[in-house]
Amino acid sequence: MADTDFWTEGEPVVDKAAPDGPIETRWERRKFAAKLVNPANRRKLTVIVVGTGLAGGSAAATLAEQGYHVKSYCYQDSPRRAHSIAAQGGINAAKNYRNDGDSVYRLFYDTVKGGDFRARESNVYRLAQESVNIIDQAVAQGVPFAREYGGLLDNRSFGGTQVSRTFYARGQTGQQLLLGAYQALERQIGLGNVEMNARHEMLELIIVDGKARGIVVRDMVTGRISTELADAVVLASGGYGNVFFLSTNAKGCNVTATWRAHRKGALFANPCYTQIHPTCIPESGSHQSKLTLMSESLRNDGRVWVPKAQNDTRRASDIPEDERDYYLERIYPSFGNLVPRDIASRAAKNVCDEGRGVGPGGLGVYLDFADAINRLGRKAVEAKYGNLFEMYERITGEDPYETPMRIYPAVHYTMGGLWVDYDLQSTIPGLFVVGEANFSDHGANRLGASALMQGLADGYFVLPNTINNYLASGPFPKVSGNDEAVVEARRQVEDRIAKFLSINGDRTVDSFHRELGHIMWEYCGMERTEEGLTKAIGLIRALKEEFWTRVKVPGKGEELNQNLEKAGRVADFIELGELMCIDALHRRESCGGHFRAESQTPDGEALRHDDEFSYAAAWEYFAADGRPTLHKEMLEFEYVHPSTRSYK
Ligand SMILES: Cc1cc2nc3c(=O)[nH]c(=O)nc-3n(C[C@H](O)[C@H](O)[C@H](O)COP(=O)(O)OP(=O)(O)OC[C@H]3O[C@@H](n4cnc5c(N)ncnc54)[C@H](O)[C@@H]3O)c2cc1C
After folding, report:
1. 281 lines ligand 1 (CB under 6 A)
2. 233 CA distance to ligand 1 centroid (A)?
3. How buried is residue 605: exposed, middle or buried, by Cβ count under 10 Å (0-12/13-18/19+)?
4. 156, 170, 341, 569: which is the annotated catalytic residue?
5. 3-state secondary structure 213-224
6. pLDDT tens digit string along 67-83?
7. Measured between alpha carbons, how far apart are the two ends of the chain, in Å?
8. Which residues does the entry assign to the active site, renumbered to this chain (predicted)?
9. Burial (Cβ within 10 Å: 0-12, 13-18, ≥19) of residue 99
10. Residue 622, H or E segment
11. What is the pLDDT of residues 114-141, one digit of tens each?
């Protein structure tokens, strides 16, 4: 691919930590080959972990349990309020408790296929292997997974699979898992092995002699800036879906930690791969700052439909059965309502584009539980989904036991993130990235219930085995707070804060964020085109210029200042948004969450081009000429050969 006006191409990036040989033994062999650090030496080593969600919380607790000294950071007032607490539906594991044909290999197969053949086989196989250990770990911690009458753990199905392998705790799986990880973390805080710093935001990465050696943080209550040093840094800072302004993510989720590392040399992979979740409560007006997810688990029993006729404004109950189109069951008979998220989202968009959407503005489809209530009884439905139904009613004022829910796709998860090798190490030595913040295991599409699995596999099992290999190559020279690189990183943060406060323009930070979100959703959302993406890049560049001349950030730096916090995050989102559009523009194929209108089959399904695009796109930060550099990591498939994904 030639250089273009928008990007240049550099050398390929290679995963040097990747093991070869039979896939079943790769992880075992990598663990055995990794160097160890003896327990007495671990006490002398410090690891910074940014983030206390499932990935960061589990990583910090486990590293401390191993004997390392850990410094943990989060911007919430308590580590257990990380966004992971919002996860509803469940977590996958290849336990095969249902004896329905599941296995490590099947989970591996489903996940590679579900990711539309854009993830590494080795990583995904390891994920499937570790999935079974996660459940044992969580049960040992007392996580109250749902159980069947006989006492065994219960399972349900999620999209893209034909087996029941999703473990859950009603609609609060993330909350219960996070309480487990948090208790493990608290134990280590109590023992003095973890130093917890809540309400501290990482604003810069410190690199000394080419290695990640610390971070610059701002105390969000007092505004105090400090430099924090360590032997290695782990980023577990979550996803960047809020670049779209409206998403199902918690309002605070942002890209700053990974973006600051990207600016300092860490490659950012597949930024355009965004997961749009099909079952969210439709937007109700411009006052909204957030969208609400209705868990995918609801598609186990809810049936998705729209009226057959266009512009049908009758109430759902007045539309007879033969005038309804259960379009997922019709188009995809073998997976029906449980097709993967990208397919279900696009199908919803298509029927709404045809004028068959329901509710205000015609941007909604029905998710109907009438059949399930008739079949199972209201009590059984309540036991499975009660809290979700209640949440829906509280938000919409409609009772889903009586009338079908209205749902519409919304931004939910970002598969892209910092590029990491098999050891979860970024292109900056000593900088490791876990959970949603890295790009590793989901390819172009994430199957439901697999983010929790990946975050916990990374934190409890993978990182604690691979980081030793890096730390064993120490001891690293002690870094002083007066080191030039440390002073410079701190100065960069102070200058940036001073700049935000000095502009004193006439537009709020939120207004910029909302405008960026609108551009991203319009041109880099569910469907992308060459023309739209080119336009979006121009619009974002203009927005960036306007931001740095017209933004108004009231207040001071040395106090609680939420506008200042948001300004930093939105400035980074604007740059990320441009990179996402460039990534989407360069990928002239449709795959997973990336649907290019120019690349579809005659019946409107996504059309991949494996001959040209079977790689992870890892980007180097914009050069002085304004163009980022593309480094390709070629993907090889020895076990699951790329085929057209068909759920029909
Ligand atoms: C509504 C909803 C429901 C979901 N349900 C499911 C589900 O059922 N199953 C499933 O598998 N997945 C689900 N997901 C996805 C899943 O919840 C997330 O992908 C996952 O929890 C991310 O975990 P994490 O540890 O990587 O990041 P997070 O939980 O987002 O944690 C990020 C942490 O980083 C900290 N942080 C970030 N930036 C900074 C900074 N600059 N300085 C200091 N600290 C920082 C934050 O304070 C926080 O502690 C859901 C997502 C949503 C939005």
Report:
1. no
2. 18
3. middle
4. 341
5. EEEEEEECCCCC
6. 999 999 999 999 999 99
7. 34
8. 341 (proton acceptor)
9. exposed
10. none
11. 999 999 999 999 999 999 999 999 999 9
